[in-house]
Amino acid sequence: MVNDETVICDQEIPGITGGALDSDEGAPGALLLQGDHGAVEFRNLLLTPAR
């Protein structure tokens, strides 16, 4: 969710992305918030584990 609005829900992962750490795309792993696109700031970030 972003700003209390659902962005993606129950979507199949079609394959690994360019930022993937390995090829096991369904396994729990790191959360990457920003890549190499320049400066960015975050505030009031709340992470809720998936069930």
Describe this structure in words.
This protein is low in regular secondary structure and 51 residues long. The chain has one domain (1-51). The radius of gyration is 13 Å and the shape is globular.
Helix content: under 10%
Poorly predicted ranges: none
Tally of structural domains: 1
Largest sheet: none
Span between termini = 15 Å
From the alpha carbons, calculate the radius of gyration and give it in angstroms: 13 Å
Envelope shape: globular
- Counted by DSSP, the helix tally is 0
Beta content: under 5%
- Secondary structure class reads little secondary structure
Mean pLDDT: 79
Number of strands: 0
Protein name: 3-keto-disaccharide hydrolase domain-containing protein
Throw out a few tags for this protein:
single chain, 51 residues, little secondary structure, globular, 3-keto-disaccharide hydrolase domain-containing protein
Offer a quick outline of the entry.
The protein is mostly loops. The protein is about 0% helix and about 0% strand. The mean pLDDT is about 80.
Topology, element by element:
Elements (H helix, E strand, L loop, with lengths): L51
